[in-house]
Amino acid sequence: MKIINLMEDTEGASGCLYEHGLSFYAETKTHRYLFDFGASDKTLVNACTLGIDLTTVDTAVLSHGHYDHSGGILAFSRINPQVSIYMMVSAGEKHVHRIKDQMKDIGIDSQIRDLPQVHLLNGNCRLNNELSLFSGVQARRFPARGNKSLLREKDGTFVPDDFSHEMYAILQADGRRILFSGCAHNGIVNILEHCRRLYGWYPDMVIGGFHMILNHYRDEDIEMIEQVGKTLKQLPTVFYTGHCTGEQAVEILKQTLGEQLQVIRCGSRII
Questions:
Q1: How many alpha carbons fall within 13 Å on the CB side of residue 204?
Q2: Which of 2, 134, 208, 261 has its CA 20 to 30 A from that of 34?
Q3: pTM, to two decimals
Q4: Residue among 270, 244, 258 at smallest CA distance from 179
């Protein structure tokens, strides 16, 4: 099995474009997967640069309803119109980022829900003998301050996002259990506990962002990140993170997790 990053916020492999977004390609003996699509068709350009043929992908998953994970879907659907794309039905709702008194649209393109290959889910789903999807994380330990400025539309007004549109993928292949977490808006600790309740185990690997990035870190933010690190340290799991985790948060987590935490750059390979 191999897992290759197709888009991340930071420069990595030679020749790869990078921008705020996330996408991973995973290849097993029997399937080709795409987890998230980045913010634009630059994800497809990187796939070509890295020698990956996205027309062979048979299953694709959108982790949640934000543009930086969904922006490449329409371009991808044109080169691979037969692939099944799975997303939560609520991922198609209107999502915004409140910056002072301004509302910035951060939702997915409205055309995506109308694609014939899109499957809208409203709960957990097992797709094949390797891949299953779950949602419904309710716990709120270690809440990220950055979530407070993210809203969703409800009954014609904007309310705090509860991230019910967030979905997680479990890939089991070659003796490994891998959790793809997208941005982990619901909190990586809460997601892992929910995984354990559903499956009876913690994954061997977690891949994705932890949404800890901030323009300025207060003492309480640093303390929260340190507590997350101490909690994750107790688990039999290796973490590959980047994107919305933030460089400073990674440095804080590294103090506790050491080599248990690996940083993803654009084009990174996990084999």
A1: 8
A2: 261
A3: 0.96
A4: 270
- For 186-224, b where at least 16 C-beta lie within 10 A, e where not — what string? bbbbbbbbbbeeeeeebbebbbbbbbbbeeebeeebeeb
Strands 125-126 and 131-134: antiparallel
> Over the chain, what is the mean pLDDT?
97
Q: Where are the beta strands (DSSP E) in 176-266?
A: 176-182, 205-208, 238-241, 261-263
Residue 252 gets the label, from left (phi > 0), alpha (psi -120 to 50) or beta, of alpha
Beta strands in 62-130 (DSSP E): 84-88, 95-99, 102-105, 118-121, 125-126
Percent of the chain residues topping a pLDDT of 70: 100
Tokens representing 72 are 């490449």
3-class state of residue 132 by DSSP: strand
**3 contacts 262 by C-beta, under 8 angstroms:** no
Q: Which of 12, 60, 27, 20 is nearest to 42 (CA)?
A: 20
Residue with tokens 């009954």: 155
